[in-house]
């Protein structure tokens, strides 16, 4: 579903070019749940921006569903993102003058594919799923950090993206709230088959994804697959023998 080849990103730092990613290549199959970890400054956020088509690499390419981002102009890239991609930014980026429900409706209204009533109904359903059914008419400033994060998640899922990119989805949240977010991501990955790629510094969150890619100084130093956790993830046998 997502193919990264030879991704290199250089920034100009004063007179010197600063290489923050070097020749990064990997594939993410549809339905995968991948975490990207590494020390601060190792290039995680930069990589996520390239994978999501929000930024362009200095060299290398990213393809989503067989479409190479570099072959598209900015309009076509924005359209592709609108159709297939959801984002959860570290800073939530909710619009302060809109209620929770209105914030969640924004992507649907931008896409213009459903009417206002359908958009409102989908937004309410999703807010209920993230446990905010009684907060639909609250403004962001009336919500806690964890609640705002859940509104941002509902907004990311409202147009049923094929792939979700999340930057530190549990950052700045207390343990219990972080736990709810992880469970929600796992659920959406399993139930909707949404491919998820997230950046985290939280080792326990990374361990609960299917695969962890570790960056150091802009290169992949480890790419490991985790054993599925027992109990909740176990697939029940079809019939008792
Ligand atoms: P991480 O997410 O792992 O903390 P980042 O991808 O945010 O790492 O940053 C990697 C490096 O690139 C850092 O040294 C950072 O200062 C630098 N960097 C990030 N964005 C820019 C930019 N727009 N211009 C110049 N340097 C940048």
A few lines on this structure:
The chain is an alpha/beta fold and 241 residues long. Helices cover 34% and strands 27% of the residues.
Describe the structure.
This is ABC transporter. One of its GO terms (cellular component) is plasma membrane. Residues 2-241 form the ABC transporter domain. With 241 residues, the chain is α/β, with parallel strands linked by helices. The chain has one domain (29-56, 73-225): P-loop containing nucleotide triphosphate hydrolases (Rossmann fold, 3-Layer(aba) Sandwich), CATH 3.40.50. Helices cover 34% and strands 27% of the residues. It contains 7 helices and 10 strands. The strands form 2 sheets. Strands 6-7-8-3-9-10 form a 6-stranded mixed β-sheet, with helices on both faces. It has a 4-stranded antiparallel β-sheet with strand order 2-1-4-5, with helices on one face. The relative contact order is 0.18. Adenosine-5'-diphosphate is lined by residues 11, 13, 18, 20, 38, 40-46.
- CATH topology group: Rossmann fold
Ligands and ions found: adenosine-5'-diphosphate
Roughly how many Å is the radius of gyration?
A: 18 Å
Please tell me the CATH architecture by its name: 3-Layer(aba) Sandwich
Parts with pLDDT < 50 across at least 5 consecutive residues: 230-241
Helix-strand blueprint:
Layout: E1 2-13, E2 16-28, E3 33-37, H1 44-51, E4 59-64, E5 67-68, H2 74-84, E6 85-88, H3 100-111, H4 116-129, H5 145-157, E7 163-167, H6 175-192, E8 195-199, H7 203-207, E9 211-216, E10 219-225
Parallel strand pairs: 3-8, 3-9, 6-7, 7-8
Antiparallel strand pairs: 1-2, 1-4, 4-5, 9-10
Helix pairs in contact: 3-4, 3-5, 4-5
The structure holds adenosine-5'-diphosphate.
InterPro entries: AAA+_ATPase, ABC_transporter-like_ATP-bd, ABC_transporter-like_CS, ABC_transpr_LolD-like, MacB-like_ATP-bd, P-loop_NTPase
Domain ABC transporter: 2-241
Protein name: ABC transporter
């Amino acid at each position: 579903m997502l193919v990264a080849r030879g991704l290199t990103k250089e920034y100009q730092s004063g007179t010197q070019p600063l290489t923050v990613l070097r020749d990064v290549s990997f594939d993410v199959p549809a339905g995968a749940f991948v975490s990207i970890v590494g020390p601060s400054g190792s290039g995680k956020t930069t990589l996520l921006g390239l994978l999501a088509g929000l930024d362009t690499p200095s060299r290398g390419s990213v393809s989503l569903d067989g479409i190479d981002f570099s072959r598209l102009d900015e309009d076509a890239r924005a359209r592709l993102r609108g159709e297939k991609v959801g984002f959860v930014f570290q800073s939530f980026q909710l619009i302060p003058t809109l209620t929770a429900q209105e914030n969640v409706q924004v992507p649907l209204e931008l896409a213009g594919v459903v009417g206002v009533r359908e958009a409102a109904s989908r937004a309410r359903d999703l807010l209920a799923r993230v446990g905010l059914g009684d907060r639909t008419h609250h403004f962001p400033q009336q919500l806690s950090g964890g609640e705002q994060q859940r509104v941002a998640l509902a907004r990311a899922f409202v147009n049923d993206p094929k792939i979700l990119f999340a930057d530190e989805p549990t950052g700045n949240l207390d343990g219990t709230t972080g736990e709810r977010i992880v469970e929600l991501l796992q659920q959406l990955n399993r139930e909707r088959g949404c491919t998820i790629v997230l950046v985290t510094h939280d080792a326990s969150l990374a361990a609960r994804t299917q695969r962890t890619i570790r960056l150091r100084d802009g290169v992949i130093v480890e790419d490991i697959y985790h054993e599925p956790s027992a109990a909740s993830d176990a697939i029940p046998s079809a019939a008792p023998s």
